[in-house]
Specification:
By secondary structure, the protein is α/β, with parallel strands linked by helices. Helices cover 43% and strands 12% of the residues.
Length: 387
């Protein structure tokens, strides 16, 4: 990667905080025991580190440490949650009915579509409006119909819209519907109250808030029954067997500990930089559109469209010195329109010109100025070529 690259793709992944990296390194060389090997001190030390990290995770989202199950990340967490719910329901001869929003991450969408195609579930897909909001009245009607699981994300990974999870969870609770919240983009950026809001299951990944890749968690409310989808050594109450990734877990725990301390101040500063970049682009790129809910979005999210310029043309010209994206990193290899923007019913030219810019705590004022100049200059150059 170029040393001069301005990184503005924080929704895709974040740089690892040096303090987190140091914690991971120390765990690799000093806490190398198997956390399940309780016959000796090396195992005890690893088990203690895992318990400490579970505490840090639970503190950040206000859950209980015993409710935290460590996974390889959100995709695995979501699969355990959805498939585990389905398998448990099927034990009673029930064909589960699941409701999801149309703008969920592919980990939710693809899992549910696969289960539906196999005849294992019934599926209801809730639409969104042009700001990616779910209609809460419609959501309540769906919950009242007797579904077995509701899946709604906490914040959208493309346009940054933040969802009223407390209200959604309350609706689900009123109708005794288990609620899975994909909080991948939200944890470490906005307050989450797992226990107080009555969320049933919550998925998160460390690499979205300055932790290492390949480690995450599924938080499951005490008493909720899931059937395992993997079998093995029986670790983590047999819900997610396999030798624990102690260094990764330590990294996740440290990232959570730091966000607990620094999140509010960091996000305030990030939002100010985002707004400054947005103002510069709006003032200098005629016809620029800001997508999503500009009053209720993640601090680091700036989703724009220059309707007369294909986003691929801009990416091709800036990719060596400015890291931005056309949408979700998990779908970037597929040449199809963003399912989020399509669900928002945006015009075709708006979708084709869409760019996702993601700021984070390491984004500097100098980078904001440089990024604005690059995008303004390249947009003008492309328009001139298209004349």
């Amino acid at each position: 990667m170029s040393r001069e690259l301005i990184y503005l793709d924080y929704h895709s992944t974040t740089p690892v905080d040096t303090r987190v990296a140091n914690a991971v390194f120390q765990a690799m060389i000093t806490t190398f025991g198997n956390a399940s090997s309780v016959e000796h001190e090396a195992g005890d030390c690893a088990e203690s580190a895992v318990k400490q990290s579970a505490y840090y995770v639970s503190e950040l989202i206000q859950a209980a440490p015993r409710e935290v199950t460590f996974t390889s990340g959100t995709t695995e967490s979501i699969n355990i949650a959805i498939q585990g719910t389905v398998k448990h329901a099927q034990k009673s001869g029930v064909t589960p009915h699941i409701a999801i929003s149309v703008i969920e991450h592919k980990a939710v969408l693809d899992t549910c579509y696969a289960l539906k195609s196999q005849g294992q579930i019934k599926l209801t897909v809730l639409p969104v409006d042009n700001q990616a909001h779910v209609d809460l009245l419609e959501l309540e009607q769906v919950c009242a119909s007797g579904i077995h699981l509701l899946c709604v994300m906490a914040a959208n990974n493309e346009v940054g819209t933040i969802y009223p999870i407390e209200k959604i969870s309350a609706i689900a609770q009123n109708h005794n519907v288990p609620f899975l919240c994909d909080a991948t983009q939200a944890v470490g950026k906005i307050p989450i109250r797992f226990r107080a809001w009555g969320i049933t299951m919550l998925a998160l990944s460390a690499h979205k808030f300055y932790g290492p890749k390949g480690i995450g968690a599924l938080v499951v409310r005490k008493g909720y029954q899931l059937a395992p989808i993997l079998y093995g050594g029986g670790q983590q109450k047999a819900l997610r067997p396999g030798t624990l990734n102690v260094p990764g877990i330590v990294g996740l725990g440290e990232a959570c500990r730091l966000r607990q301390i620094e999140m509010v101040e960091d996000e305030r500063a990030i939002a100010a930089k985002r707004d400054r970049l947005q103002s510069k682009l709006l003032a200098n790129i005629p016809g620029l559109i800001i997508n999503g809910d500009t009053q209720n979005r993640l601090a680091g999210n700036l989703h724009i469209s220059a309707p007369d310029i294909p986003n691929s043309a801009i990416i091709a010209r800036v990719r060596h010195y400015l890291a931005i994206s056309t949408g979700s990193a998990c779908s970037s290899g597929v040449e199809t329109p963003s399912h989020v923007l399509t669900a928002m019913r945006l015009k075709e030219e708006v979708i084709e010109g869409a760019l996702r810019i993601g700021l984070g705590k390491f984004t500097t004022d100098e980078e904001i100025e440089a990024a604005a100049q690059i995008l303004i200059a390249e947009t003008r150059a492309i328009r001139k070529l298209l004349e």
